[in-house]
Amino acid sequence: MSKVSKLFKGPSGSSSSSKSSSKSSSKSSSSSGSKSKHRSRSGAAPSPQEALHRLRETEAMLTKKQEYLERKIEEEIMIAKKNGTRNKRAALQALKRKKRFEQQLTQIDGTLSTIEFQREALENANTNTEVLKNMSYAAKAIKGVHKNMDLDSIDSLMADITEQQEVAREISDAISQPFGDEFDEDELLAELAELEQEDLEESMKNMSRLPSVPTTKLPSTRPSQRTTTKKRVEDEDDMKMLAAWAT
Predict the structure, then answer these.
(1) Using CA of residue 125, residue 129, residue 135, residue 138, what is the dihedral sign?
(2) Which residue has the higher pLDDT, 100 or 45?
């Protein structure tokens, strides 16, 4: 029985060991696969929007820290002024803390400058990417439009348009030509000049027939005005005499 049991135990033990080894290998392969997947996910580049969002959050956090440090510096200055003469040790400790806060504030200023530069560079890169995408889209649209055009047909069309314009110009010239007898323009101008000369001579004759201007001096109207004034004074005197007689 012992030999038989040993015979049965031998292959079963080997099978169990093979099963355990296969399980461990499968576990190791699955764990290595999950690790490779995790690495591939973590190694993927973040989107520009996500990076900008994180940079803005960092800027906001550092700005709050900056405000906090500025308040603490003011507080330490007040403590140093308050204990300057009474408690010199407390005043010196306050100034030391102020110096540490100032160092932290300087570091934060430099960090904010770096983050701001990085954010602006990322925003510009994102803008350039969108511009290039839109330009590529527009170039494809233009290519699609020009794809249905034939240069030979365009040339023939422009030649037809030019020919039709010349025909229309010839028709306009033919229509605008005057009909009937043609007269010499120089003769017409000479006749017009003769008519103008006749009008000028007639006007000169009419001017010679006008009456001459009198040379004698016209009588002045001042004496008549004097007589009128004298008569008015006499009438007023008569009216006064009648009024006195009536009273």
Answers:
(1) negative
(2) 100
Do residues 94 and 80 make contact, with C-beta atoms less than 8 angstroms apart? yes
Burial tier of 196 (Cβ tally within 10 Å: 0-12, 13-18, 19+): exposed
Cβ proximity of 62 and 105 under 8 Å: no
Tokens of 235: 């009438």
Give per-residue pLDDT as tens, 200-225.
888 887 776 656 655 665 555 555 55
Token couple for 24: 């461990």
**Which amino acid, residue 80?**
A
Write out the DSSP string of 152-213: HHHHHHHHHHHHHHHHHHHHHHHHHSPPS----HHHHHHHHHHHHHHHHHHHHHHHHTSPPP
Q: What is the pLDDT of residues 40-80, one digit of tens each?
A: 455 678 888 888 899 999 999 999 999 999 999 999 999 88
What is d(CA 73, CA 94) in angstroms, rounded to the nearest whole number?
9
User: Contact at 8 Å (CB) between 108 and 66?
Assistant: yes
Helices (H) and strands (E) in the chain, counts: 6, 0
Residue 104 and residue 69 in contact, taking contact as beta carbons nearer than 8 Å: yes
Q: What pTM value is reported for the model?
A: 0.40
Q: Which two structure tokens, joined as six digits, stand for 143?
A: 């290519």
Helix residue ranges per DSSP H, the chain? 2-43, 48-82, 88-147, 151-176, 185-208, 222-246
Q: Is 211 exposed, middle or buried (0-12, 13-18, 19+ CB in 10 A)?
A: exposed
